[in-house]
Structure formats: C-alpha cells, structure tokens
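hiii, so i know i said id send this last week but things got crazy w the move. better late than never?? heres the sequnce for the chain we talked about at the cafe, plus the structure i predicted for it. fair warning i was half asleep when i ran it
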Amino acid sequence: MRIEEKILRIVCAVVVSAAALALAAAFVETDTAWYQALQKPEFQPPPIVFSIGWALLYALFAASLALVSQACDKPKKVHFLYFAVFVLNALWTYCFFQQEKAAAAVFLLLITIISALILFLSVYSMNKTAAYLLIPYLLWTAFALYLNYEIAFLN
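okay and structure toks below
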C-alpha cells in the first residue's frame, strides 16, 4: 500500500469517526426539564466527564478504524460493523434525550454492546492493537448501561 493511500485511509477514519461523534452529540440535551427532573444514580459523573469521555472514545475508534483499514484491502464486513456501532450510538442518544425513553434506550444499549463485542472479535482477528483500542468503549458502554438502567428504574 502506498503512503498516499495509507494517509487517505487515516484521514477517512478520522472524518468518519468525527462525523459519528457529531451526529450522536447533536441529540444530547442535558438542559431539558425532563432530563433535569430525572433522579440520577449515585455514580452519575458530571456532564464534563461524558464530553471528554466520548471525545476520547471516538478518537480511539478513529485509530482502530485506521489500523483496520490498513490491515487489509477490503475489510467491508468490519467497516459495516463500525458503521453499525456508530449508528446505534446516535440512535441511543436520540432515544434517550430526544424521545425521553430511558427504558427503550436500555435495550438499544444492549444491542450496541452486542454489536461492539462482535466488532471487537472481528477486529481482533485482523489487528490485535486495533481491537485493544475498542476495549475502553466496551467498558464505557457497560457503565452507560448501568447508568441508563438505574435512571429507567428510578424514574
């Protein structure tokens, strides 16, 4: 693979990940009356933690996607899995914040975690470093599932 193609794949991975983050973030509204009135779990971090955490996770996604894109010429199945996880993240933020459906969002997170596990296993067979970069996302979404479940249960 030529250096130009490697650079293009890195740029595409960053652009796609940034667009996915922007789409998901577009639905997040923590200043609504509904969200403010929710009883939150004890371990609910302050909003800034979510902003920083998601930015870091999507940076790791970009790095992982760039490595996978360079690992083989046509990783279409794996690209689809990255896309699926990105879409599921955006759907979760839409369901939770815009539709104000915390219980339904729990199920979306379960589907997201399963999809992310499938992504991890698929990536692991191609590039172990790229797979390891996905572990923080898996841990974060597990924590998000706990928070979302508690919010749905408490409210």
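btw The chain is about 80% helix and 0% strand. thought thatd interest u
miss u guys!!
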